[in-house]
Amino acid sequence: MVKKILSLLAFSLFSLSFLTAEIPFEKDALADGLILGGGAAVFAGGMLMDEYVDFDYPENLDKDDVNVFDSWCIQDFDKAFGYAGNISYGAGVLLFPEILFSASYLNDSIKGQELVTIGLMYVESFLYTKGTINIIKNIVQRPRPYSYYGDVDYFDESVKDRYCSFPSGHTSDAFMSAAFTTYVFHECFPDSKWCLPVGIASYTIATSTAAFRMMSGNHFFTDVLAAAGIGTFYGLGIPYLHKVIYKKKTAESQRAKFEVTPLPSGFNFTLRF
Question: Which residues pair with 271 in a beta bridge?
């Protein structure tokens, strides 16, 4: 009953005109062990730096010290745009790709194991993206735009976050999700009429997230620009590695095979390359 309801919802959202096809991605125990292990290590490294790295808080912040590309982003914190950025982030990272690929699974466009592969790739992409961003934040220690307004209470437990502007975590995750969703969907359903709309929707949400993060006073332009590049790199790179694995396994399965077929008049010998 639940599956029928979800299928109906998915149909109303996407019309489900996807084509059934074998996805060109493959998981591998050894390769994914290394990829997932590396992602977990990067993620853990970022978390540990968040916990133990001390920040050198400047005594004074001067707006004139901000470069010309970012100076226009200096503004006090705007709570409304802050909430909007969180909502956009949730829609792009936590909802859109999950609903999209779950809908294709419920419509029998992809199989259960293929959905698992897509989910595994997404988790790996997220771990690398989030870990890389946190590591860079702790190294750069850049003040957020709103920090240039008023004094900072150094005894406030959240004061460290005020110096984690570069790069933007929300934006990196959003662009990772956009790149991942657009690329994987196109590779799975290259002939679907939904390829372009999915790409437009994904990047619209990601761009909106970046814009809201700047408009809320949380980030500078270069913060979101660098984050978009990092997120895109992992959003495309991790699925590409699994496409390489798929091609390798496909090639191995098509290597030379020697077959003997019994016939009424004798035997037929076939050598396939």
Answer: 258
